[in-house]
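$ ./design --mode recover --in tokens.txt
reading tokens...
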């Protein structure tokens, strides 16, 4: 049991490090497409959170599933708002 926890922590730390390195290497011109792609991934996370909440094997799984649904929804909505705001910066002043 302890081995599984250590492997999970190792994978989490490795993912955080790789994610940070990948994101810092992205040029500013590609931030909007990257944000749109991450919104799609967050949408998949939202579906997974809904499925895990719906199964509801025990009370803890339901509570964690609801928390995951709330956070994933905030992430998706916030991501689309930020993407929309970034795209507004590229429009001509005359077309507004």
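writing sequence...
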């Amino acid at each position: 049991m302890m081995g599984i926890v250590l492997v999970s922590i190792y994978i989490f730390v490795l993912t955080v490090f790789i994610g940070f390195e990948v994101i810092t290497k992205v040029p500013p011109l590609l931030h909007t497409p990257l944000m749109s792609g991450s919104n799609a991934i967050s949408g998949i996370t939202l579906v997974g959170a809904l499925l895990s909440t719906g199964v509801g094997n025990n009370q803890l799984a339901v509570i964690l599933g609801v928390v995951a649904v709330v956070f994933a929804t905030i992430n998706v909505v916030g991501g689309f708002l930020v993407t929309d705001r970034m795209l507004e910066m590229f429009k001509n002043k005359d077309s507004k």
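exit 0
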